[in-house]
Write a structure and sequence with these properties.
- The structure is a single chain.
- The chain is mostly beta strands.
- The chain contains no helices and two strands.
- 0% of the residues lie in helices and 41% in strands.
- The protein is rod-shaped.
């Protein structure tokens, strides 16, 4: 998994047309989702 930065950002769209942006900085490589 090539990582350009230590910051993971992903957005979640709910059924109420609400976009939630979650950003994780300095994410631990201990538990990685493949």
């Amino acid at each position: 998994m090539p990582t350009t930065d230590d910051r993971w950002c992903f957005q979640v769209t709910t059924n109420a047309n609400i976009v939630i942006r979650l950003c994780i900085s300095s994410f631990d490589g201990r538990s990685k989702m493949s």
